[in-house]
Amino acid sequence: MEKTFIMVKPDGVKRGIMGEIISKIEKKGFEIKQAKLFKPSRELIEKHYEEHKEKTFFNELMDYILSGPVMAMEVEGESAIEIMRKMIGNKDPKLASLGTIRGDFANSITKNIIHGSDSIKSAQCELNLWFN
Ligand code: ATP
Ligand code: MG
To answer: Which of 13, 104, 128, 132 is 20 to 30 A distant from 41 in Cα terms?
Structure first.
């Protein structure tokens, strides 16, 4: 069993797509072990996206994630990290396949609806950061 960190980003919450995302996760057979809907602090988001601190899009990313509440979730299941990344799809809306969450619901590389941990190490770090 593997655990991953999933976040529905502010546009997903605002546009009312949260329920559909939760439904997809549940229908895939994964279990949502913890969930919280809240407006994260700048400090939390800066830590979460630390790897992108030097990128040109960092400020835009900060403003966007801080623009409203997000839904943070701990999701558990076999190969949950890799399978959730597949279900989420490419961050570039031009490359995200239809049928993936981003492919179906996002048309912007910044406002791309959802985040999922990309490795065992980042899942552990992110779950620790968001739920401890
Ligand atoms: P996430 O970490 O949010 O799950 P990801 O792992 O698919 O997304 P990353 O490369 O980690 O993609 O980028 C983190 C986030 O930063 C992206 O989801 C997107 O919102 C934003 N981002 C990434 N690249 C760009 C870019 N070139 N222009 C604008 N925003 C970007
Ligand atoms: Mg990432």
So the answer is: 104
Residue to substitute in 47, 91, 100 for testing ligand 1 pocket (most ligand atoms within 8 angstroms of CB): 91
> Which domain, by its residues, includes 79?
2-131
Are 29 and 79 a contacting pair, CB within 8 Å?
A: no
**What CATH number should be reported for the domain holding residue 71?**
3.30.70.141
Q: H/E element holding 22?
A: helix 18-27
Q: Is 108 in the pocket of ligand 1 (CB under 6 A)?
A: no
Q: Each residue of 52-90: pLDDT tens digit?
A: 999 999 999 999 999 999 999 999 999 999 999 999 999
Closest ligand to C-alpha of residue 111 is 1
Q: Is the CB of 45 under 6 A from ligand 1?
A: no
